[in-house]
Design a protein that fits this description.
Layout: H1 13-26, H2 32-43, H3 51-62, H4 71-74, H5 79-89, E1 124-127, E2 133-137, H6 139-143, E3 148-155, E4 161-170, H7 171-182, E5 188-192, E6 199-203, H8 204-207, E7 213-218, E8 221-222, E9 232-234, E10 249-253
Parallel strand pairs: 1-10
Antiparallel strand pairs: 1-2, 3-4, 4-7, 5-6, 5-10, 7-8, 7-9
Helix pairs in contact: 2-7
The protein binds ligand MTE and molybdenum atom (MO).
Residues 105-113, 156, 193, 198, 227, 240-241, 243-246 line the site of ligand MTE.
Length: 272
């Protein structure tokens, strides 16, 4: 791949902050507390839970197992997505390894994370397809869910791979309240670093895979800055280019989002 990367015009930090403030002002934003109460509504089947709510819960939790037909096929997603769904999206997982087989991974790729950030100041914004802010989250909103640990192979398009252990929250757990909010999630999810310098486009089906984590731990310890602190994506079903470090924005999108390496000649899906 010998393409010269195009320079993307970049918004100044100030302009971006102003744009976000304007978006926040015009749209209702879930506070972390509101978000957590939504999460509880979605995930706890208390005494008052109706049969319908319980069915909804089962639907969210058991999607891959119930009948082994992934939603993406039922809902008539595009051929491309259906093809890889047959490989892994239908509940099939990428191989996992013994915890003892994993070790610390090298730092690779620093787009959007060159400067250290104040982790206490970090927050992650969630945006709807219309560009409005739906929620803003502290790390505690993510760690509130069950922690999943997985020891999997991380494969880089540069040709190396490394067995590594991630700890984090299933993206599917985290977005359940947004699924309720939006009715059905749009087909795509865009993820960006806080400065917008690195950005990844994902199909929603891949995001909902049980091995797709919002990861906050690597090898049993909180992520270091150059590995994407405080929160990054981890999935063994895609090449490493998709595992964006330091997520600042998650946007649901009806259109296929732009993708840093996709724009530079790599396959947009980068499916393994
Ligand atoms: N923000 C950001 N995330 C990124 C990259 C990057 O340059 N910037 N590089 C990607 C690539 S190519 C790989 S292989 C992995 C490497 O993750 P690591 O540094 O934790 O090993 O991060 C991915 N996520
Ligand atoms: Mo990579």
């Amino acid at each position: 791949m010998s393409k010269i990367p195009k320079r993307t015009p970049r918004e100044s930090d100030e302009a971006r902050a102003q744009r976000y403030a304007a978006l926040d002002a015009e749209s209702p934003t879930l506070t972390p507390a509101e978000y957590r109460s939504q999460s509880r509504r979605s995930f706890l089947t208390g005494a008052v839970a109706s049969v319908a709510a319980f069915a909804g819960f089962r639907h969210l939790q058991g999607r891959p197992e119930i009948d082994n037909i992934p939603d993406v096929l039922r809902k008539g997603h595009e051929f491309n997505e259906a093809v890889w769904s047959n490989v892994r999206g239908s509940g099939g997982n990428a191989p996992t390894f013994a915890r003892s087989a994993s070790s610390m991974i090298r730092v690779n790729g620093r787009h959007g994370i060159r400067d250290e950030i104040d982790l206490d100041q970090w927050s992650m914004r969630v945006e709807g397809p219309d560009g409005r802010t739906l929620g803003r989250h502290a790390l505690a909103d993510v760690t509130a869910f069950d922690k999943v640990e997985m020891t999997v192979e991380h494969k880089c398009i540069e040709g190396w791979s490394h067995v590594v252990t991630w700890g984090g929250t299933r993206f599917s757990d985290f977005v359940a309240p947004y699924e309720d909010l939006l009715g059905e999630l749009p087909k795509y999810v865009a993820l960006e670093t806080p400065d917008g310098a690195y950005y990844v486009g994902m199909d929603t089906a891949s995001m909902m895979h049980q091995q797709t984590l919002l990861a906050y731990e690597l090898e049993g310890a909180p992520l270091e800055q150059l590995h994407g602190a405080p929160l990054r994506l981890a999935t063994p079903n895609k090449y490493g280019i998709k595992t964006i470090k330091r997520i600042g924005l998650i946007r649901f999108s009806d259109e296929r989002p732009r993708d840093y390496w996709g724009e530079r000649g790599y396959d947009w899906y980068a499916q393994l």
